Amino acid sequence: MRGRLLRATLAAASAAALLAVAAAAAGGTGNDGPRDPSGGSGPAKNVILVIGDGMGASEITIARNYAAGAGGRLTLDTLPLTGQMTTYSVEESEPDTPDYDPDSAATGTAWSTGEKTSDGRISTTPLTDEDLTTILELAQRRAMPTGDVSTAELTDATPASPVSHVASRTCQGPEDMAECPQDEKSAGGPGSIAEQSIDHEVDVLLGGGRQRYEQFIDAGPDAGKTVIEAAEDKGYDVVFDTAGLESVQPGQKALGLFTPGNMSVDWTGLPATNPPSGPQRCDEGQRPADEPSLAQMTAKAIELLDTSAGRRGFFLQVESASIDKRDHAAEPCEQTGELINLDEAVKVALDFARSSRDTLVIVTADHAHTSQIVERDSEPPGASSILVTDEGAEMMVTYGTAPIGASQQHTGVTVPVGASGPRARSVVGLIDQTDIFDIIKAALRL
Ligand code: MG
Ligand code: ZN
């Protein structure tokens, strides 16, 4: 066992050394920046930003141990330039005071706009409720096609942040506006997150949340229509399953709504309990075939955007949402499967970047989360589960940031960030989440 692990570690180390040599060679040849996989200072044509919601270092390590082995490497581990990122948000009533444990709305706002806000806000300022311009909007001003992909509802906080401005993340559909009366169209506002995603004419919108788009618009030129009907009137090809997604032709705007709420998870297993559940193996491949995988959605989004971009390039955000949602629920198999599904989407992005080398790929999380690896025979006070990994060893995972049965908490530690392509070296060291906005803005010269 030990010899096998050591060999795997050595193999990974020599692969890393080779990458470093290749990077040094590419960097040393002068002004061929766009062909340099490890960075280069030249502009990027395309940017693909991949977010694992709640994907902290512990979630990545659990997934690596389970599926690649303790000495193995996931695809996201092969990103040549890596750093750490602070994720804190700020208090609504005192915007100069940090909130050390942020939510997905404030964090999505941070990289989307370059500004800190308070938990729950979507690309609006704390206290004063002003709209903050997003990186997606800047890309659109340059006539770049844009895309937004998520396994959550498309109106959930992470996919909402680049495409909308509302006072509360709860204002997802036109009939969900109780906490944002000032944003309703009948009050002269921009409408719900679903309405704004369509009114922004984001070229590719793929995910869950059909229930939000079936709601009726209350005012404005689309009054009385559902958001889906309004989208069709704006030229969207609206599709509801995997076959429909495959049928979308380049040149068409695409709205894919594959489930009423969040999309299904791909792996299932026993939830964590006290005493610990398991030892267990996870049941993989459980997602219904009529729901596309994150990798399938990512591949289709890239195909559609790259075709319509021509020489202008595109901006695409991709999110694996239920790493977070299943970490809240103390479900180690579900959480890990969603991270492995993210890793497959990262492979799609990196494969595209290999043929279209002026593509900046950034992979990171919005915030860290609960799950921790602890000693196999320990007795932690929270809910735990013992997973039997692909390499045949037992790994105890525990959840201890909320009482057993309650929703586990996000955590406030820094998260990993990795990148490849033009300007990728900007992520090295300790950066802040708002720096992602500046990195993408500089890379695309927006
Ligand atoms: Mg999210
Ligand atoms: Zn969460």
Describe the structure.
This protein is of the alpha/beta class. It has a single domain (47-444), classed as Alkaline Phosphatase, subunit A, CATH 3.40.720.10. It contains 13 helices and 16 strands. The protein has helices spanning 2-28, 57-68, 104-113, 135-141, 157-163, 193-199, 210-213, 227-233, 242-247, 294-309, 322-328, 332-355, 433-444; strands at 46-52, 81-86, 89-90, 98-99, 146-153, 204-208, 236-239, 253-257, 277-280, 315-320, 359-365, 372-374, 383-388, 394-399, 415-420, 429-432. The chain has a ten-stranded mixed beta sheet, with helices on both faces. It has a four-stranded mixed beta sheet with strand order 9-13-14-12, with helices on one face. Strands 3-4 form a two-stranded antiparallel ribbon. β3 and β4 form a beta hairpin. α3 runs parallel beside α5 (157-163). The longest helix has 27 residues, at 2-28. The chain is globular and about 65 Å long. Residues 53, 104, 152, 156-158, 319, 321, 324 line the site of magnesium ion.
What is the topological layout?
Layout: H1 2-28, E1 46-52, H2 57-68, E2 81-86, E3 89-90, E4 98-99, H3 104-113, H4 135-141, E5 146-153, H5 157-163, H6 193-199, E6 204-208, H7 210-213, H8 227-233, E7 236-239, H9 242-247, E8 253-257, E9 277-280, H10 294-309, E10 315-320, H11 322-328, H12 332-355, E11 359-365, E12 372-374, E13 383-388, E14 394-399, E15 415-420, E16 429-432, H13 433-444
Parallel strand pairs: 1-10, 1-11, 2-16, 5-6, 5-10, 6-8, 7-8, 9-13
Antiparallel strand pairs: 2-15, 3-4, 11-15, 12-14, 13-14
